Amino acid sequence: MSQLIDVKCTHIENELMRVRFANTQIISDHPAQWGGSDSGPAPGELVIMALAAATALAGRRYANCSGLVVGHIGARASMTSLQEGMPDSLRHLPLPFLTYVDRFWRLLEIEGNLTSDERNGLVEAMADNGIARTIRDGIKIDEAVVFSRPSPGSRRPAGNDPGNQLLKGRASLAAGEIRVASQGNNWQVGAAALDEHTCLVKMTGALHVVGDSIASLRGAIPEEMLLGGLASCTCIYIARNAQFHDIAVDAVSVRVRTQLPVDPSQPITQVEKIAEITGEFTEEEAAKLTAFAQYCAFGVTLGRGTAIEDSLAFDETNHPTVAPTGLASLDRSPPTPNDPAYCTDGSCCVPVFEKQAS
Questions:
Q1: Furthest-apart CA atoms within the chain: distance in Å
Q2: Residues 33, 39, 43, 48: what is their CA dihedral angle, to the nearest 10 degrees?
Q3: Do 197 and 210 form a contact (C-beta atoms < 8 A)?
């Protein structure tokens, strides 16, 4: 029987958001240079945390079920994002361009005394876990935006927060024009499976425990992290763009839910996303806010499907001279696997802009 997972993100102030899972919560944020306070993982980091954790857990499950003698099983993940000029059909939207992730990168880490067939079976299980298949195949997002009036004594409007002024006056790209928004020059997140139920995920300045199921009470599960990335990306996209368009928003929250596949190797194919925006809005402002909710970076990314390129780090303990094999050559160079340098500038999901000449 499938299980409903339900994730809710609430905007607090500036780039700060609270993401609630079934048994825990996490603060999502951006560094100070992007208007945040560096209090937690950015929305993009939540997505690659989900990918890395699901990959490591899938490997440990396969190894245990197959009776493989394996020491370390882990994964690192990163991504690159692009900005693309709006096609003619979307030029009416109050956005200068679409931002989306163009490529996810993964390094599969395996240590153990394995035959070639055992290693290849383990690699396949890690590469084709449910989160990876969801990202590659894309999902259908059922969008809804609900507007409500503020209650007496509501907090200071988010639209008037000082926030991030770097994106004010963003120039539009021509239709079809594409430029790199952020490049994964290093592995942003690393994950290690402690056992088949528990994964330790490392990002800049913090460690997070990710569990294999809600019932295990070992932290958020990868599917919750993925939905949390979508919810927080939508939430901050609404709040930030409302500020840039001088729309006073009293509160923003985004809820994403789906039926979890019974088999963890199967992808999520459809989610329901509901954005609730509180304030007094004109029809024009409501239309703009609806557009922000529907065209956030990870909504676009997950809606279209995105390639994942894998490389393998294999340590055959008894035969260290054996070269790693098992994966095809990449069509682009992956991030260099330096450790422990992960995303430190917020570029995982906030576009980096060159300063305009005065």
A1: 70
A2: 110
A3: no
**Lookup: tokens for 91:** 């030029």
Torsion angle (degrees, nearest 10) of CA 191, 193, 194, 195: 160
Q: How far apart are CA 22 and CA 172, in angstroms?
A: 40
Q: Are strands 251-260 and 178-182 parallel, antiparallel or unpaired?
A: unpaired
Residue 272 has pLDDT above 90, yes or no: yes
255 pLDDT exceeds 50?
yes
Identify which of 58, 88, 90 has the alpha carbon closest to the alpha carbon of residue 75.
58
Determine what percent of the chain is predicted with pLDDT higher than 70.
84
Inter-residue contact 78 to 58 (CB < 8 Å): no
Helix axes 116-127, 43-66, angle to 10 degrees: 140
CB 17 within 8 A of CB 11: yes
Contact 147, 107 (CB under 8 A): no
Residue 135 CA: distances (Å) to CA of 87, 298, 299: 23, 10, 11
Measured N-to-C along each axis, helices 43-66 and 222-244 cross at an angle, to the nearest 10 degrees, of 170
**Do the Cβ atoms of 186 and 336 come closer than 8 Å?**
yes
The H helix count followed by the E strand count for the chain is 6, 13
Give pLDDT tens digits for 38-92.
899 999 999 999 999 999 999 999 999 999 989 899 999 999 999 999 988 998 8
